[in-house]
Design brief:
Layout lengths: L2 H19 L6 H9 L2 E6 L7 E2 L5 E2 L1 H14 L5 E6 L4 H6 L14 H6 L2 E3 L4 E3 L1 E6 L14 E5 L3 H12 L5 E5 L2 H9 L5 E5 H10 L7 E3 L7 E3 L2 E3 L3 H19 L7 H4 L5 H7 L16 H9 L2 H8 L29
Parallel strand pairs: 1-4, 8-9, 8-10
Antiparallel strand pairs: 2-3, 5-13, 6-12, 7-10, 7-11
Helix pairs in contact: 3-9, 3-12, 9-12
Length: 344
Amino acid sequence: MTNNKLKTMAAIVAAMGAMMVAPAHAGKTLDGIKARGQLICGVNAGLAGFSAADSAGKWSGLDVDVCRALAATVLNDAEKVKYVPLNAQQRFTALQSGEVDVLPRNTTFTLTRDASLGLNITVPNYYDGQGFMVPAKSKIKSAKQLKGQTVCVQSGTTTEKNLTDYSKANNLGIKPVVFEKLEAAENAYFTGRCIAYTTDASGLSSTRSKVAKDPKEHVILPDLISKEPLGPMVRRGDDEWFAIVKWVMYGLIEAEEYGITQANVDKMKSDTNPVVQRLLGGGNEDTGKLLGLDKDWLARAVKATGNYGESFERNVGPSSPLGLPRGLNNQWNKGGLMYAYPVR
């Protein structure tokens, strides 16, 4: 090989290396967020534990924490969020049209949604499955006992299709009673119009805790009839914003794995563990420049919401009103599915 060819190849390799470490451009979505000084977040209108506003209008929940962490990351203030309540029918249009910047609204990731809506799925923040709730007095112990029975379900959701598929596959002849709005489906069940109500198991726990006059009078059956990985979605066409949302999610999961908490995040910045330094921008580490952010991007997110485990425990965990076990949402090294891509 000639010297000229060697020099050309060397130049190409050097250029590729430079591209790999070059700071990222912020992207048009982030530019818009910074210009208005506010993140616009599409959330459920009222799903206890995931996104709900109290009497003073203060929002909280596992999905709300995604919004707060992102706002802390890109605006240095977790409170700079406008929450837009969306029902199942509105949610995708609101994101597609640019009405919201991100959609962390207990939404299931599916092939159809990924391939046909012009949206990008990011990272699951809750692994769920569809279940059934029945009155305790019904004595129903299994979903297979719902043969020929009426089941309340919300339209425009994966829940409706899953119910039809499950009924057909098991020759149950279930009679769906379909409602456009979540509240209408819940009300129909609690007033006795249907023998059962179906949605994601986490949603059943939320409804039983928030809506039932006496939660003990209603039983969530052990059967799960689907896989429902829930998480935030963003519009296609802005890879920089997609990367930020994705890596904030992974960062909060990895922060839990390495013991970084809301209380100790500042102290941990001086930790000598190279992984912790990369996560928190300690020493000379600066992963933020690859995302168009500064080196403290993840430290601010953890300060705002705590790591993933802290957010889970506070909003939906065993000590919360929902009382949900970690289960599949535990860390990968504790038997769960929460496995963050390495922040490096």
